[in-house]
């Protein structure tokens, strides 16, 4: 678990085990660089990542940019990433920016995995 405080913004990044993580607090411009740095260490050895965002209290387009960065990373390194409880503000920005579909592009279902290996 990592608690970070910056002037006016803080976040908490919990490692729950078995590829599960939880992010709480600010997920935006004041915190995304620190969150990205932690995620590189935390996500490195996980083939499947589940990130719960239900504890996020502040978010903006920088949070969306980081979700898209993680998605790109997962696709590039053949990992699977699931974002749970994406904040409404981020979903609204994604919808307006026409990138909402990309947020789930690094998820795989059993049926998709079977098709890919067939």
Describe the structure.
It is built from four helices and five strands, in the order βββαβαβαα. The protein is of the alpha/beta class and about 120 residues long. It has a single domain (about 1-115), classed as Transcription Regulator spoIIAA (2-Layer Sandwich). It has a five-stranded mixed beta sheet with strand order 1-2-3-4-5, with helices on one face. A hairpin with a 2-residue loop joins β2 (about 10-15) and β3. The protein is globular, with a radius of gyration of 14 Å. The protein starts with a strand and ends with a helix. About 25% of the residues are buried. The model is unreliable at about 110-118 (pLDDT under 50).
What is this structure's SSE topology?
Elements: E1 2-6, E2 9-17, E3 20-27, H1 32-43, E4 48-59, H2 61-76, E5 80-84, H3 88-96, H4 110-117
Parallel strand pairs: 3-4, 4-5
Antiparallel strand pairs: 1-2, 2-3
Short descriptors:
five-stranded mixed β-sheet, alpha/beta, 118 residues, 5 strands, single chain, disordered C terminus, 4 helices
Largest sheet: 5 strands, mixed
In percent, how helical is the residue content?
25-40%
CATH architecture: 2-Layer Sandwich
Q: Give the uncertain stretches in residue-range form.
A: 110-118
Total helical segments: 4
Strand order of the largest sheet: 1-2-3-4-5
The counted number of beta strands is 5
The CA-CA distance between the termini, in Å, is 40 Å
The shape, in one word, is globular
> And the CATH topology?
Transcription Regulator spoIIAA
- Highest CATH level, the class: Alpha Beta
Rounded mean pLDDT is: 89
Count of domains:
1
User: Which structural class matches the secondary elements?
Assistant: alpha/beta
For CATH, the homologous superfamily is named as: STAS domain
């Amino acid at each position: 678990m990592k608690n970070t405080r910056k002037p006016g913004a803080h976040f908490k990044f919990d490692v729950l085990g078995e590829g599960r993580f939880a992010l709480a607090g600010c997920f935006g411009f004041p915190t995304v660089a620190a969150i990205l740095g932690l995620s590189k260490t935390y996500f490195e050895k996980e083939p499947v990542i589940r990130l719960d965002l239900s504890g996020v209290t502040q978010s903006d387009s920088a949070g969306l940019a980081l979700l898209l960065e993680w998605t790109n990373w997962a696709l590039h390194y053949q990992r699977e990433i699931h974002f749970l409880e994406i904040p409404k503000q981020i979903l609204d920005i994604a919808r307006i920016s026409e990138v909402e579909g990309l947020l789930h592009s690094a998820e795989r279902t059993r049926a998709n995995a079977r098709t890919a290996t067939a």
